[in-house]
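Researcher: I'd like a structural prediction for the single chain below. Treat it as a standalone chain; there are no partners to consider.
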Amino acid sequence: MEKSRMKMLYHLVSEENWEVMIRELICSSKDKSNKDVMLLLHPISVHKDNIVHLAVHSKKKEPLKQILEFVDKNMRHSFTSSVNAYGNTVMHEAAICRNLEAVQLLLAENKELLRLENASGETSSCIREYENRQVVSLSRRSNCYYF
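Model: Treating it as a single chain, here is the predicted structure.
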């Protein structure tokens, strides 16, 4: 992986320039069937967060939605269940950041995310520790009773 390319993507993410980042990934692929999606999973922060993790930190729906639309449906499970240095999935990070829109998108994509444990053995029920009752409520409305 080209270091300068990762720096450029990190710069776009840090500036929350999601549309340009997605366009860069699309343009970099030679054809639409061979998107350079693996760049999204490459760790780009000191905590080994990838672009998918950082998208939920924006506290907006669109960055994660754009990424999920960019990724082939067959690959979405591996993207939503990717982990950072703490073993946190994208769902853990969405709960910690209280990004309710991201939680809704993730639950629609993969309800199994609520069962995955991080390095501390916490499932996404760790959201209770962050007193995020709205996220708990959303998961219950989605018939996710893993808490």
